[in-house]
Design brief:
- This protein is mostly helical.
- It is 73% helix and 0% strand.
- The chain has a domain of 179 residues.
- It contains 24 helices and no strands.
- The radius of gyration is 34 Å and the shape is elongated.
- Keywords: Coiled coil, Cytoplasm, Cytoskeleton.
């Protein structure tokens, strides 16, 4: 009898091994027209194992006089429902048999879920739970406890039952923490319930598998908290997941790098630039572990090489874009801190912050040590080296801002290599817009007005050709963005030229011509933006959409101001310009009278427009009088 059982048990173990091989490896080779072929074969083997286990158990208790055993899933489920075989793993031989049944139910549950049979999968997972839920958490069953709850968490999250998923996953987390606190020894892995004596996993392998089960718990909880909009907790769990994946060397380099880069963007929104920089540095370093980018020649000769080249180029370009956002947001947050009430650099505030910083140098190192660290001994130095190339401290002057700007500009060049205009229109333009924004915020720190003007000219040079060539029929939103930004850029240049001219006793003809060109260019793009809002028949909408309300009224306001700023020696031209200005000011006032809810969107512009509506007619009449007298 013992020999027969030994032979039968070896057969069970071999079936289990083959079922895992089919499910985890062979299934990757299944044809597209039969994608679950290997999964179904694995399921058949798992059901045979269930029958064998039930037969062994019934024979042990003398309750079966024939060798038929059980032959269907329904029979096994009914017996499980009735409590047959229910005991706690580790308590007795019966407990071990019950745990083995639970393990097979678990794998059947996963199998059905992977083949998109969710209800059946849920039933098997619940069968697993029923077999073990009365047990205390022990070295023999803790991995099963955690894994089955992980799977139920995934199942309910997929059904958008996020709070139910949260419940299962938080229990799994609690079980891990309790076990590590009260025992902490490497527990039995699920697969070890079906191995012959002497084939058990090593201690290191048991630890790795158990810790990765818990890492999966943290990963799924990160997704759950994100869906529940608990973003702080989601960020913490995502960071812990990434850290553990590196620690236990269980990660796909490109996937890990993209997740770390994505996490950096969360830290950026929270102005936690030290953590954001660390995530991005780690992402850049870990991405290199995916290997060298195949050459174009190699990609043309081999489809796998072509796919690898495409993936590596895209993911590294995606990481570069995250670096651009890091640099841009760091500069923009510094600008908010340093600007006065008219948007200029507050020199007194600048001096004050510099004094504060000198007194806080020790805090910088203290903060660095409090950040969660990524990397192992072979990557940590590379990560730190990359971190040192860009500051995580808000810049307070032009030189500090410029060093961050240059890093951002380097990543712009990297991102554009993959996201070229040919094939990636939207992405390419977004990168150009970020590049323009980098120049714009750098100009804020520059006190020389002429140099500031040149920085804005660089923005014009990169955006204007795109705006002219882009088809507004297909890219209306992007065209509007570019038109408005170009109008604003020319507008800023006009203000700078006006400030320069105010320092001169009498501006020369060249200066006046340049000033008028900037005014006209700004008006042109504001008008293009406003014309894009018109109906196909050319009619301006009676009521503006919410997202267009402020931009459209601001555009009208600035067109009015620009008309009034144009310089001309001819009274007739002056009169025409002021008439156009008054028309635009009147539009704003009348629109807000007809739509009172619009007033809050343009309070300052409305106040100034009302003032100009009362003053400009006087100026217009004076010019008319002079014309008539001539």
């Amino acid at each position: 009898m013992a020999a027969n059982q030994s032979t039968e048990w070896r057969a069970v173990c071999e079936k289990f091994r083959l079922a895992l091989e089919l499910s985890e490896n062979e299934s990757k080779k299944d044809p597209e027209n039969n994608p679950f072929r290997s999964k179904y074969k694995a399921r058949d083997l798992l059901n045979e194992i269930l029958c064998s286990l039930k037969k062994i158990e019934l024979e042990e208790y003398g309750e079966c006089e024939n060798e038929a055993g059980c032959h269907s899933e329904q029979t096994v489920e009914a017996e499980t429902e009735n409590g047959l075989g229910k005991a706690c793993a580790g308590d007795s031989p019966a407990g071990l048999r019950a745990a083995r049944l639970a393990v097979v139910q678990y794998y059947l549950g996963v199998n059905h879920i992977e083949t998109e049979e969710l209800s059946a999968g849920e039933q098997h997972l619940m069968n697993c739970m029923k077999l073990i839920d009365d047990c205390t958490t022990t070295r023999e069953n803790v991995s099963l406890f955690i894994n089955v709850r992980n799977q139920l968490g995934i199942l309910w999250a997929g059904r958008d039952e996020i709070e139910k998923a949260q419940g299962y996953l938080e229990i799994a987390e609690s079980m891990y923490l309790l076990y590590m606190r009260e025992d902490g020894q490497p527990p039995l892995d699920l697969q070890e319930f079906f191995v012959a004596e002497g084939e058990e996993f090593s201690t290191q392998e048991k630890i790795r598998r158990f810790e990765m089960s818990y890492t999966h718990t943290l990963y799924y909880l990160a997704q759950v908290y994100k869906n529940l909009e608990e973003f702080e907790r989601a960020g913490q769990y995502c960071h812990s997941t990434l850290q553990r994946q590196l620690e236990y060397k269980h990660f796909v380099p490109l996937e890990w790098a993209i997740n770390a880069a994505t996490l950096s963007q969360y830290y950026v929104t929270k102005t936690r630039y030290m953590e954001a920089r660390h995530c991005l540095s780690a992402a850049s370093v870990i991405a290199t572990l995916a290997g060298e980018i195949p050459s174009e020649a190699a990609a043309k000769e081999s489809e796998p090489e072509c796919e690898k080249r495409e993936e590596l180029l895209q993911k590294r370009a995606d990481i570069a874009r995250c670096w651009i956002k890091y640099c841009l947001n760091l500069l923009q947050d510094a600008k908010k801190l340093l600007e006065d009430n008219i948007g200029e650099l507050d020199l007194d505030r600048q001096d004050e912050l510099k004094r504060e910083r000198r007194n806080e140098e020790d805090e910088k190192e203290k903060g660095r040590k409090s950040a969660i660290i990524f990397g192992s001994s072979d990557t940590y130095d590379s990560i730190c080296s990359l971190e040192e190339k860009v500051s995580s401290i808000l810049p307070l002057d032009f030189e500090e801002a410029r060093s961050i700007f240059l890093v951002g500009q380097d990543y712009v060049a990297q991102a554009k290599e993959y996201f070229a205009m040919d094939g990636h229109v939207t992405d390419h333009i977004e990168i150009l817009q970020d590049h323009s924004a980098l120049f714009k915020v750098l100009a804020f720190f520059e006190q020389d007005l002429e140099r500031r003007c040149k920085m804005h000219k660089r923005r014009v040079d990169m955006l204007e050709p795109i705006c002219k060539d882009l088809n507004a029929q297909y890219y209306l939103l992007i065209c509007r963005q570019l038109q408005f930004e170009l109008a604003e850029t020319y507008y800023e240049m006009m203000d700078l030229k006006l400030a320069v001219a105010d320092k001169l006793d009498q501006p020369d003809v060249h200066t006046i011509k340049k000033f008028n060109h900037l005014c006209s260019s700004s008006m042109k793009y504001y008008q293009m933006f406003l014309d894009s809002i018109r109906s196909p028949e050319g009619k301006f909408p009676e009521k503006l959409e919410d997202e267009l309300l402020r931009p459209a009224l601001v555009a009208k306001f600035r067109v009015a101001r620009l008309h009034s700023k144009l310089i001309s020696n001819q009274l007739s031209a002056q009169l025409e310009n002021l008439d156009h200005a008054l028309e635009s000011y009147n539009f704003i006032v009348q629109y807000c009278e007809e739509h009172p809810d619009a007033k809050s969107a343009v309070e300052t512009e409305l106040e100034l427009s009302m003032e100009m509506v009362s003053l400009l007619p006087l100026k217009i009449n004076r010019i008319k009088s002079r014309l008539n007298s001539n």
